[in-house]
Amino acid sequence: MSSNSNNNVEVGFIWQITDDVLRDAFKKNEIGDVVLPFVVIRRLDCILDGLNENVRETYIKFKEKVAEEKLDPILRKSAGGLKFYNISQHTLHSLKDDARNIEINFNNYLNGFNKEVRDILDNFQFDKIVARLIKNKLLYEMIDAICRIDMHSDKIDNHGMGYVFEELIRISNEQSNETAGEHFTPRDVIALMNAIMFSTEKEALSQTGIIRTIFDPACGTGGMVNLGKNYILDILLKDSNKKPIIQTYGQELNEQSYAIAKSEALITGEEANNIKHGNSFSEDYFQGKHFHYMMANPPYGVTWKKDQRFIENEALNPAGRFYAGTPRTSDGQLLFLQHMISKMEPEGSRIAVVTNGSPLFTGDAGSGESDIRKWIIENDWLECIVALPKDMFYNTGINTYIWFLTNKKEKKRKGKVQLINAIDYCRSNKKSLGNKRNEITNTHITQILDIYTNFETAKDCKIFNNDDFGFYQLTVEQPMYDNKGKKIIDKNKKPKPDSKKRDKENVPLNSDIENYFKKEVIPHLPDAWIDFDKTRIGYEINFAKYFYKYKSLRTAIEVKTEIITLESEISILLNELLN
Description:
Helices cover 41% and strands 14% of the residues. By secondary structure, it is of the alpha/beta class. The protein folds into three domains: 11-157, no CATH class; 159-384, 3-Layer(aba) Sandwich (Rossmann fold), CATH 3.40.50; 469-545, no CATH class. The chain is globular. It starts with 10 loop residues before the first helix and ends with a helix. 37% of the residues are buried. Mean pLDDT is 92; it is low at 1-6.
């Protein structure tokens, strides 16, 4: 937790007292589903302490005189300008005074919150949680337990509350690690993203009166934008007297994850309305808006088939997000990347996106994937890609990468792309969490950041020109022959191509096609020619090729020694079994 915030609430204490109440009725991986909404309610309850009476009096005074939509701003004003209020006659503490009617009174208390809070609780599916607590006769015990935690603003400020909530989310997701990866990115991966993305920003962020925005179009529980904000304020500008205003934004499709992200914004003083619920492709709630920083870990290999018509229609519009191309419908990662690029601030943005290997190389020349890579690289937006260690995520052990993009490259980086092979920069977890068996420590982050900052070719770093990733895909034809072994000539008096012998040849963009063809193809196929009308330009980023490590074959003596040793061990085992 932050050392410079009011942080007198121990996360372990919250988890322990709620776990003590819930452990017999809820599975370990379900406890977070109960704890998080109750922490939200308790925080709101504490902030509203001392304001409730004024809100109720105002409600009674105006409820018959003012239309409902006009009543909301009046009640917010009566709550001291807060973005939430409660018109019921109850508080969490007062509910305990009438244990016999706690079910009815608690329901009345929840319905007393303003619409935005009720929307959050609906997306938490809080009614089902309350029903289970009632069924197990635990509602009073849970309310009593949460009331033992003091979350008044003088005990824990908004920034500190963010740390508490983030830690509770982390514990909750690690308890349910079999599904955590869908909506939760490990904190060590986010820490690396922050270190690189904000490494160039300290001077700009230290200016007086700075306001900056952070956006995640697949925000899950909101961890990326919130930890990004914390990184700027508590690490990057730790010793600075000038702190910028950081505004966070996000959109999320999963209801419960959206509820967590929105509730965190609400209880930490952020604008909760900046968190939207819906499909980022077909329901872009931030259309026309631009952001200074963007971060995302979009789902891997998830189909966008149900949005296909909408996306392909937008792809026909030169001003649309997807005009550069559309990937195959089985994987929408490159759609998220285009969506974020469309929201770059003209004066400069930085983007960090986690993907698997597919967006790097899937798709032949002329395919949607290749055209999207071509568009990104030719516009000089791709700055760096970092290959992460395996087994970093809760729900997958596959190879993953962080792309860093910007429309304000430093002079030394213009026209170039840096690749960092960080697959060995990790240590084993003391305890595996789902598929997450490795972690990146602060030491590793410092080492990777140094490689990024130095911007020099080294063992784990390669610097390429943009067009090094491009290639001409040539269509190589060979003549068709008749039964007598003669070339068949078409009406234009040219050899007729044999489609069965047709082949593709990839030639680097910086090569001379004619020279390449003479040297590499003609010696093997003297009658071949290039059909230039079918030439396509493709782009791919083949990490494995760039960082290939040759392993020499073992000598015959080494192999022979190993065989003799194995034969000896087998012989000993057989003798032991027989005797």
